[in-house]
Amino acid sequence: MIEIQLEEASKRFQYEWIFKNLSLTISQGQSIALTGSNGSGKSTLLKCISGAIPISSGHIRFKQLDKILPESDWFNFLTISAPYLELPEEFTLSELIDFHFKFKLPLNKISKEEILEIIYLEAHADKVISQFSSGMKQRLKLGLALLSEVPVVLLDEPTSNLDRKGIEWYQDLIDKFGQNRILIVCSNEPREYEFCQQKIVLEDYK
Question: Which residue of 55, 69, 95, 156 is 20 to 30 Å from 128, comparing CA positions?
């Protein structure tokens, strides 16, 4: 079982505090929404939790069975889907899935064919990613994040570029594959995080 602990975690850029003195414990099986106005620091906090950028003070810890995991190992336990993450556009869809799962195990030993069906891209397996629409890329990012065998899934604006049918698909994906994990969702859209048990408003931690 994985647990993420934030202890008076704070981040600033130059003289501006993005968030300050945030203490929080998230255990496996729990979900939390990070909300706030545009520019409030949601994505920055998510990047700090992922280990992509350091906090300015305080602590963020990943614990497994009461053992603190080194920050260099965090990536083994998480996936992330975010608008600012670029996909390698020279790969075909099939090549990208193969590449991704060299680093992660597929959830429940799911096959590539099943993954393609779940993300509704089976007709595009041999198409290069550069030819994908923004909605297709978003379904791919979400599919790779949620169909990987990891206990922590980080989602930033998960329904960006998705139409109404795509939003329903995302909600169904969460229902089917989001169980018994830590889910952290950055969003201002309730439809993206209505399943979350807890909500953090970033403006409360300035």
Answer: 156
Across-strand partners of 48? Answer: none
Task: Render pLDDT for 81-107 as a digit per residue (tens, 0 to 9).
Answer: 999 999 999 999 999 999 999 999 999
CA–CA separation, 182 and 3 (whole Å): 8
Residue 173 in contact with residue 118, Cβ under 8 Å? yes
Cβ atoms of residues 94 and 125 within 8 Å: yes
SS3 content of the chain, % helix, strand, coil (to 5): 35, 30, 35
Q: Which candidate, 199, 191, 159, places its Cα nearest to that of 30?
A: 199
pLDDT tens by residue, 38-48: 888 999 999 99
What CATH code is carried by the domain that includes residue 117? 3.40.50.300
The residue segments making up the domain with residue 201 are: 2-205
**Closest to 4 in 3D by CA, of 76, 69, 54:** 69
